[in-house]
Design goal:
By secondary structure, the chain is of the alpha+beta class. It has helices at residues 2-18, 41-44, 160-178, and strands spanning 61-69, 72-80, 84-90, 100-102, 107-109, 114-121, 125-131, 134-144, 149-156, 184-187. It has three helices and ten strands. It comes from Albula glossodonta.
């Protein structure tokens, strides 16, 4: 067994040496503090309940993913709070100026812009599908009670762990609302 691991380690080292080197100009990845000036703050904190923004302690799940639009995949942000699911188109270009928000219109303006593509209450989630053949894929099935129609958010996460994190977050919030388990269905075929 140790001979196999040694050979595998040696082979991995050789492959890494021959792999093409990246010519990326990216030096580092910046982070942004979540505060009242953040462009997503109004989606995360309902400040109409309290005038003190310090009282707001947002709990949410944030995921960069891909979704199907026609024949191609497009990047989206999935933002899930304790009560809502949001599909957002965000501009991730870095800038020094602070954004301003106008959530009533579904558009955030400023250097960091986000457009709300779709909003659904977590209570409208009818099921979640995971795929054995593609562990990064998650389908969130939603029954829109207002429009009386079913729809599916076809999402592709960057890793199986991120996909499972999304499912776990949605499941936890959904089960807290209804007091029963939300079962994720594992499907074999890619449908």
């Amino acid at each position: 067994m140790s001979t196999l691991l040694t050979r595998l380690s040696l082979f991995s080292g050789i492959v890494k040496e021959f792999a093409p080197k990246s010519n990326s100009k990216l030096k580092s990845i910046s982070t942004t503090r979540l505060n009242p000036q953040h462009h997503l703050w109004s989606l995360l904190c309902d400040t109409s309940q309290s005038n003190n923004v310090e009282d707001c302690k947002p709990q949410f799940f944030y995921l960069l993913a891909f979704t199907q639009k026609g024949d191609h995949s497009v990047p989206v942000t999935v933002l899930v709070t304790q009560e809502m699911l949001y599909l957002l188109n965000e501009d991730h270009q870095w800038s020094k100026s602070l954004p301003s928000t106008t959530p009533e219109e579904g558009v955030f303006t400023g250097s960091e812009r986000a457009t709300i593509e779709e909003t659904q209450p977590i209570s409208c989630v009818s099921s979640v599908n995971l795929f054995a053949s593609d562990p990064c894929r998650v389908n969130i099935n939603i029954y829109d009670e207002i429009e009386k129609e079913e729809k599916t958010w076809f999402l592709q996460a960057g890793s199986a762990e991120l996909a499972q994190g999304l499912v776990d977050w949605v499941r936890t919030q959904w089960e807290a609302m209804f007091g029963v388990k939300l079962t994720a269905c594992f499907l074999e075929a890619r449908s």
